[in-house]
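Data availability excerpt. The first of two example chains:
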Amino acid sequence: MNIYQNILLAKQQNKKLLAVLIDPEKMDIQNIPSFFEKVHQSITTHIFVGGSTDKNQLTEPVVIAIKKATKLPVILFPGDVQQITNKADGILFLSLISGRNPTYLIEQQVKAVPFLKNSNLEVIPTGYVLIDGNKETAVQRVSNTKPIPNTAINIIVHTALAGEFSGKKLIYLEAGSGATVPVGASIIMETKNQLKIPLIVGGGIKTKQQLTTAFQSGADLVVIGTAFENDEYFFEDLKKL
């Protein structure tokens, strides 16, 4: 069973999934083995690797080190085509559908095709929706797009549905790395009620309560990154039962 089929099955069984997002620019390769000792004691089900930038081309060596440390699926979450490596298991083929910059709607995707068609990566088409988290994020700066206001629930839901109607297999609601306010419960709930495909939620989730709220509101998979970067002991709150 492939990665996407597993996500679909978990959705059908109402099994909640948790991804740890690792930014290659912020992860010391030497610390990966000890980091994953904590990951494996937690409820983590997936590993995402990526960031808005990768100036030192660290994605591939970080992915190689991660693959040595875990059997969890490793999925690329690339900021651009330079962050793609066939050493991972899959890739979120992201389209920034909340923005209107063609570079991140389709141009980066076209550039990735020559690599992806010759790789063994599982390609998962994903509609990426950036929502205002009360802080300018790296995604905003790099993509030169503005997030959707977190009060504009109808626009957020319609954007997510436009992604589904155009063939995306996942919708990713993102408040941005380091957001001071995570995606709100009402946004998650309303989007979940309208979608037929799995819903990913990330950005600004720093506590177990915020994680629980995201799950209870309807997120099928929650992504946490900055919270673990700042405090690995956060894993203690997320230990397996």
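And the second chain:
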Amino acid sequence: MERTVTEAIQYRRSVRIYKEDLELDDEKVKKCLINASLAPTSSNLQLWEFYHITDKSKLKEVARACFDQPAAKTAKQLIVVVTRKDLWHKRSKANLDHIKKGFGDKKKETHTPREKFVLNYYGKLIPTLYTEFLGILGAIRYFFFQIVGLFRPVYRQVRKSDMRIVAHKSAALAAQNFMISMAAIGYDTCPMEGLDSLRIKKILDLPSGSEINMVIGCGVREKEGVYGPRFRIPFEKVYHRV
């Protein structure tokens, strides 16, 4: 029986050693990746890709690029979560086309204020935020919005580095969806940031504009694969009711 969301969250641990004799069902893992793609994402741009590695030779190559840490070396499958900020234009256009299709044959002058806002959001605001040239446009945007922010609330994360962070946050939300989905069906995972990102990009033949968000080891846990009882800072230390 599949676990509830709460049960899956409580069951999930970062498992670093997986059973050697237990293979994973590729289709079940793929369904968990479909769940990953349903995660919330900034402006619905979905600036991510998921590389599901099952080929034995590729597994060894990627594990090596992850320094052969146990969570990679013993994994039955690996998931590489990739950010694709460089695809913002295509993904924004896909959103805009989807929205326009929903409007049907409506003429521009008959759009409601909300419809006009959405069209301007993807047609004007997103290009304003994501268009870049050697970091210069981002710097100009930053100083402009800082000045505007003296007079009213304004979005301030507008530099090239800020937009990278936005893409990685969205990818991390997708990765969490994936890991909880895996836990729900009794599969285990371990997110890894200790890796040689350039080597992994070469192994997967990724374009220069892509970035590795994380690599996730997948398998079924060995007892010693969980390195001790769960530790969390007391909730009272991190919870603030305002």
